[in-house]
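Here is one chain, start to finish.
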Amino acid sequence: MKKILIIIGTILGFALGAMIFGYIAEPEGEAAAADMVQPPTISAKQAILIDGKSGEVLFEKNADEKGYPASTTKIMTALVTLDVCEQIGAGIDTTVKIPEEAVGVEGSSLYLKKGEERTLENLLYGVMLRSGNDGATALAAIMGGNTEHFVQLMNEKAEKLGCTGTNFVNPSGLYDDNHYTTARDLVTIAKEAMQNKIFREIVGAKSWEEYHNKNKTVFQYEGATGIKIGFTKMSGRTLVASSKRQDTELICVVLSDGNWFNDAYALMDYGYEVRGIEDEEK
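Its structure:
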């Protein structure tokens, strides 16, 4: 009988302990769940969000899936242009003549004229703010000797950065089946570009001389630092956006996204929440 009572007592003791532990542990579990930041639901087919300094991926969606960059291609165009300037010791105040092949290029335009003189600075701002396809073609022809060689330099740069899903066939981003990238590759290119002081200054500008920045991020998002929008009917709407709050800079990419700006802002909001950084404007 005594043995039976000991067994019953032991069982009751375990049960009581489990109940007490449950009452104590469950609220902690619920609190922990409540503290977890939930990522946003976005409409982009491909997307990624990274820490611009460390490169840590904070969010991704089909980030290695083939996509089409449209004019976000010009991030690489500007980057290679600045690389060549550094290699040959040329400043962006260098004056160049517009080649014939850059005149009348399809799409967004700076309305360049054959033989007219422009500085590299003017062309870079025109390419990155107004998204001039003729400006991108002019930079390619001038800085690469010809467009084909410049595109080769673009692909070599992408390969050097570790991009495995990217192939460029033009400097402007006009649609071509063989002109493609991935969200992961594009954010890698953007991260590299944002380390260039001149590039960062250009893409963060709201306007420059006659050019007004088409990237609404620099007007709408707290701490925005750039960088480039893109659109063609075949590629859809693409956006690479960046911002910095306190010591944290975020870079995000959304491809084929009808809700491009709102999705980019939601991703960056999420990133700052993860980092524990509040919106100072709220």
